[in-house]
Amino acid sequence: MKTGVFYLQPKYNRILLKLSGESLAGSATHGIDFDTVLKICEPIKKCADMGIQVGIVVGGGNFWRGRSSGKMDRTRADHMGMLATTINALGVADALEQLGVQVRVQTAIAMQQIAEPYIRNRAVRHLEKGRVVVFGCGTGNPFFSTDTAAALRAAEIDADIILKATMVDGVYDSDPKKNPDAVKFDTLSFMDVLNRNLQVMDSTAASLCKDNKIPILVFSIDEPDNIIKAVCGESIGTLVKED
Ligand SMILES: Nc1ncnc2c1ncn2[C@@H]1O[C@H](COP(=O)(O)OP(=O)(O)OP(=O)(O)O)[C@@H](O)[C@H]1O
Ligand SMILES: O=c1ccn([C@@H]2O[C@H](COP(=O)(O)O)[C@@H](O)[C@H]2O)c(=O)[nH]1
Description:
By secondary structure, the protein is α/β, with parallel strands linked by helices. It has helices spanning 34-49, 74-98, 120-128, 146-157, 190-195, 203-212, 226-231; strands at residues 14-19, 53-58, 103-107, 116-117, 132-136, 161-166, 187-189, 216-220, 238-241. It has a 9-stranded mixed β-sheet, with helices on both faces. 47% of the residues are buried. The model has no long low-confidence stretch (mean pLDDT 95). Bound molecules: adenosine-5'-triphosphate and ligand LLZGTKA7. The ligand O=c1ccn([C@@H]2O[C@H](COP(=O)(O)O)[C@@H](O)[C@H]2O)c(=O)[nH]1 binds next to helix 2 and helix 4. This is Uridylate kinase. Pathway: Pyrimidine metabolism; CTP biosynthesis via de novo pathway; UDP from UMP (UMPK route): step 1/1.
C-alpha cells in the first residue's frame, strides 16, 4: 500500500524549485494568500522529510514585473521586482517554518536585518544539513528574471534538476492562455525552446540550463502534490533537457 510519503522513492537528491509568484496569490490576482502558500509548502515539507535537499527561487509576478512597468526606468522597476521576490521568499519561509521545516532565506542584494546574504558555500552547507534555502532578490541584477536566477542558483549549488512550478501544466507550441488550440509537449530540447522562442521561460535561463546541462521540468502548481510527483519522476508536465 503506497499511501504515506515514506513509501515514495525520490529520483533526485538536490532540487531547485522555481515557484511562480502568481501562484502565491491563490484565487486573487495580486498579493499573497497565506493559506495557498501553506498548501504549496506542504509537499515541500514532504520533500525535505524524504531527505531531498531543496533550494527555492520564488518569482514576483503576484506583485510586480519590471518588464510590465510602462514608463518607469527599467532598472528601477527591476529593483522593485527583486524586492517583490523577497517579500514572497519571506512568505514561503514563514509557511515552511509553521509546518516545522528548518529554513533559511538568502538574498542576492544584502538586507541583513531581514535575511542572510547569498553565500554559495553557506547555502550548500544549509542544504547538507537538511535546511530548505529560499533565495530572494533573483540574481541581484536588473534585466534578468527569476527563471534565470533559478538556472544560476541550480548551477551554483549543483542541483540535479529545476522544477518550474507555474500557472500552466507544461510547455506548449504557443501560449495556451492566448491560443486554445496550443499543443503541449511531453519533452523538448533547449534548442527547441530557443529556436521556437517558446515564452514559458526566457532565453537567458534556457541558455544557462543548456550550457550547464541542467534539465527543467515545467508543470502546474494548481495541484501542489505535483511537486511530489515531480521529485518521484512521474511523467507530468514538460521535461526540457539536452538532446
Ligand atoms: N509556449 C508556452 N507554453 C506554456 N506557457 C507559455 C508559453 N508561452 C507563454 N506562456 C506563458 O508563460 C507563463 C508562465 O511563465 P511566467 O514567466 O509568466 O510565470 P512564472 O515564471 O511562473 O512566475 P511569475 O508568476 O512569478 O512571473 C504561463 O502562464 C503562460 O501563459
Ligand atoms: O534577477 C532578477 C530577477 C527578477 N528581477 C525583477 O523581478 C521581477 C519579478 O521576477 P519574475 O521572474 O518576473 O517573476 C522581474 O520582472 C524583474 O523586474 C530582476 O530584475 N532580476
